[in-house]
């Protein structure tokens, strides 16, 4: 195995560990890990666009801190890794744009732990990113050394 092939595999491993797994974990509220024990408890938030600004009310997030952290990690790493790994480039741009929207959304959501505000602006699209992620994985597993640039 050449140095270039090892580098390509490391990038792909980073893609799986830093983007794909946190995206699946966050979007399923971590029920993906318990689905075999409790199949009826599985849920998946595959598409979410929402806005709220409850001025004058105490803000209550619909997401746990662990879920927010998983989403921030997944979307922020997607912003970096899709342009690096995904071809064609227009598809990488779409995925990076969706990742940017998701990262910004969950950074705003995470800011509730630091600042007292009521804004919630969520744009989360795992249903659109997962097929692109599968395409990226499939392309790299077919010809890993030709896809990394």
Structure explained in plain terms:
There is one protein chain. This protein is mainly alpha-helical and 149 residues long. It has one domain. Strands 1-2 form a two-stranded antiparallel ribbon. Helix 1 packs antiparallel against helix 2, helix 1 packs antiparallel against helix 4 and helix 2 packs antiparallel against helix 3. It is globular and about 60 Å long. The two termini are 18 Å apart. The relative contact order is 0.20. The mean pLDDT is 91.
Overall structural class, as computed from helix and strand content, comes to mainly alpha
What's the mean pLDDT score? Answer: 91
Strand content: 5-15%
Total beta strands:
2
- Report the radius of gyration as a whole number of Å: 17 Å
- The N- and C-terminal alpha carbons lie at a distance of 18 Å
The largest pleated sheet is described as: 2 strands, antiparallel
Morphology:
globular
Query: What oligomeric assembly is this protein in?
Result: single chain
**What is the percent of helical residues?**
55-70%
Q: Supply the number of helical segments.
A: 5
Low-confidence stretches: none
Placed side by side, the strands forming the largest sheet appear as: 1-2
Number of domains: 1
SSE order, one letter for each helix or strand: HEHHEHH
Summarize the entry for a quick read.
By secondary structure, the protein is mainly alpha-helical. It has helices spanning 3-27, 65-85, 89-110, 126-142, 144-147; strands spanning 48-53, 119-124. It starts with a helix and ends with a helix.
């Amino acid at each position: 195995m050449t140095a270039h092939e090892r580098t390509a595999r490391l990038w792909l491993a980073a893609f799986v560990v830093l983007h794909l797994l946190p995206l699946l974990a966050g979007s399923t509220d971590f029920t993906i890990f318990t689905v075999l024990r409790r199949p009826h408890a599985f849920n998946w938030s595959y598409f979410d666009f929402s806005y709220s600004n409850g001025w004058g009310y105490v803000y209550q997030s619909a997401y746990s801190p662990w879920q927010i952290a998983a989403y921030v990690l997944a979307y922020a790493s997607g912003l970096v890794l899709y342009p690096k790994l995904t071809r064609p480039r227009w598809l990488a741009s779409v995925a990076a744009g969706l990742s940017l929207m998701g990262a910004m959304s969950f950074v705003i959501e995470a800011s509730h732990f630091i600042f007292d505000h009521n804004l919630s602006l969520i744009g989360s699209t795992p249903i659109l990113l997962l097929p692109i992620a599968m395409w990226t994985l499939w392309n790299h597993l077919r010809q890993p050394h030709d896809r990394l640039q």
